[in-house]
């Protein structure tokens, strides 16, 4: 891809994807990209990011990319990422998990077995294999994990949880992650925002949305909504055990109600990016309510 197209795709990724699924080390990626240029970043993670960003590419970006359609561009990005995944060129484990999570954006038709369900399943297996679901303080780890890596690991794991919940709901299939197996704390805004302070000024101005703090708050709300959804899905999909009770429904109803938007609507002064994210989070929130009411 031409350099200007790569730049715009990276901007699109951080505008539309990163604050919904903050799995990428923004500091490391953007500083390398800023110093080395787009033609040095053709690894598995890069093409996985491009695949995710293609979902939000506008008509002008598609035209400048010389692709006849969004589907054609997605197919090309996916094939490049999938080829590198199949080659297994000694990719670092965390980077492999990041890439596979983003490959879950791939979807062609219901008959394709390598869609979101397939890729998020691989991501969860890899993440559990290196203990991302466990709190380092309680899992008896011998290797010291520095705070910045801990923040990244929390973001990656909870992104797996979010994708697991919503793909499970969309597909009508059991979840792969169960809360009783995990003790990793919820992520915090610091986990997302602190690394942005170390992004080079030029790269930050070019690629990071100005309202990153508010976008991070929206993601944290999505994480909590997804966590409650997990409990509801557990009631809905289990094939044995006691039937859900009114107390179960009341408990989850109170939990989901506590996560309702604090604002009465989208504020006029919000940016388009922030407004779109807020509307999407509200759609996720609203979709949980009828599903909860249908459990009994």
Question: What distinguishing features does this structure have?
Answer:
DNA binding; mainly alpha; 0% strand; 296 residues
Question: What do you see in this structure?
Answer:
The chain has 296 residues and is an all-alpha fold. 61% of the residues lie in helices and 0% in strands. It is built from 13 helices and no strands. It starts with a helix and ends with a helix.
Q: What secondary-structure arrangement, pairings included, does this model have?
A:
Elements: H1 3-16, H2 26-36, H3 44-54, H4 59-64, H5 70-87, H6 93-103, H7 116-129, H8 147-171, H9 189-193, H10 201-207, H11 212-237, H12 246-257, H13 272-293
Helix pairs in contact: 1-3, 2-10, 3-5, 3-6, 6-7, 6-8, 7-8, 8-11, 11-12, 11-13, 12-13
